[in-house]
Amino acid sequence: xxxxxxxxxxxxxxxxxxxxxxxxxxxxxxxxxxxxxxxxxxxxxxxxxxxxxxxxxxxxxxxxxxxxxxxxxxxxxxxxxxxxxxxxxxxxxxxxxxxxxxxxxxxxxxxxxxxxxxxxxxxxxxxxxxxxxxxxxxxxxxxxxxxxxxxxxx
Length: 154
Prior knowledge:
By secondary structure, the protein is mostly helical. 62% of the residues lie in helices and 0% in strands.
């Protein structure tokens, strides 16, 4: 069994572009990444199949029958990719309606981890005033610790 080099290069490009776009913050780019990644995986599964006659017993003649399993798996993957794409498209549209863009914002935990990583690498100024330092020490401006209000009253 020989694999066509064009298939291998196309699969590599589609999967690499898909993974790169999946790591973006925009839901539209994430959607495009899912579609590219799905198509790359479908081509990979297709290239693993065996060429031959139709997989119907009694109609193939002397040539070997093709393997129907990769084709069935690709059809299933197409349906799953379509469902995930529809879900992501609905999320992006709803985000656009609510906030005017489809960017996924950082949450408090992401900022805390980024602050801790910057502190571990020695990139912060050391004054303890970065959002990551405030969240790590519990000084998140009244939301935690003795920041004031009813939560901090003795």
